[in-house]
Design brief:
alpha/beta, single chain, three-stranded mixed β-sheet
């Protein structure tokens, strides 16, 4: 008899949620950077082990709403909390519990969702006893089903997480093919790879006003019979000054973004890739419903 478990991953920005889902499914399906609000919408990762299929949902970090895009991101968090078998609250062991965690826990308690506390980034502590007050602080806030210290970046503690989740499995068919690891369309995966490089390379001011749209995606064979994937993507920003920063002097920044993104795309899809990037300005797009939905970030 097959089983499945639907698990939502929640927490404050930069707690390591995207790193955790990537580590759990064994593939890089979510963008990762040091900048807050890297994840903008719900991302589903799938791991099938024997008869059990785990379906993980990565969510945006809990934050205050600043614009319509933020509202959509917070809605994605609320939607992910309902109708799941359990939740992983990912906490950064170097930070104290704050209002973001308290708000999330109140929502989880209201939905009667079992919660596993995942204390991440323990690799930053040489003395593991330093984790004791961190765990005690969180334990005072909520009756967690279990508490698991991990290092997502080092893939330490993942089997313990899966064991803890296994008690919340439900008998039933697998909802995804056993060899599938995400429900994200190819275009979304590619656009996130490009956006991740922009987050890595650009100053703090620019990335939050960026969206990436893959305009065309086509596979063909060269004259020599080699398979190649042609990708054309547009980077949207909110200001002309930002466009100049993204392109860089003599196109150097855009070229660097394209090079790094292409390497990730080729590694992920295992096919030689021809990536072309364009940059356009869409002023104040984060407050325009039609554009948010057009970029795949809204309902």
């Amino acid at each position: 008899m097959t089983e499945n478990s639907f698990v939502t991953i929640v927490g404050r920005p930069n707690a390591g949620k995207s790193s955790l889902i990537n580590a759990l499914v064994g593939e890089k399906i979510a963008a990762v950077s040091s900048k807050p609000q890297t994840t903008r919408t719900k991302i589903t990762g799938v791991l099938t082990r024997g008869d059990i299929q785990y379906v993980f949902m990565d969510t945006p970090g809990m934050h205050r709403s600043r614009d319509k895009l933020s509202e959509y991101m917070l809605k994605a968090i609320d939607n992910s909390v309902s109708s799941v078998d359990c939740a992983l609250l990912v906490a950064d062991c170097t930070k104290k519990a704050g209002e973001a965690e308290k708000t999330l826990l109140a929502s989880l308690q209201a939905s009667k969702t079992p919660v596993i506390l995942v204390i991440n980034k323990v690799d930053l502590f040489e003395d593991k006893e330093a984790l004791i007050p961190v765990i005690a602080e969180y334990a005072a806030l909520y009756d967690f089903d279990s508490v698991i210290p991990i290092s997502a970046i080092n893939s330490d503690g993942l089997d313990i997480i899966l064991d803890a989740i296994s008690k919340f499995t439900v008998k039933g068919p697998h909802y995804f093919p056993d060899d599938k690891f995400t429900d994200q369309p190819e275009r979304v995966i590619i656009s996130e790879m490009i956006r991740e490089k922009l987050l890595e390379l650009l100053s703090d001011e620019v990335p939050h006003g960026i969206a990436v749209s893959v305009e065309s995606l086509q596979e063909r064979d060269t004259r020599s019979g080699e398979s190649i994937m042609d990708v054309v993507a547009t980077i949207y920003c909110e200001k002309d000054s930002h466009k100049g920063i993204i392109i860089g002097k003599n196109g150097a920044m855009l070229k660097r973004v394209g090079q790094l993104a292409r390497e990730d795309i080729e590694r992920f899809f295992m096919i030689k890739t021809n990536l072309k990037l364009w940059v356009k300005v869409k002023e104040n797009w984060r407050n325009r419903d039609a554009l948010i939905k057009n970029f795949g970030l809204g309902d």
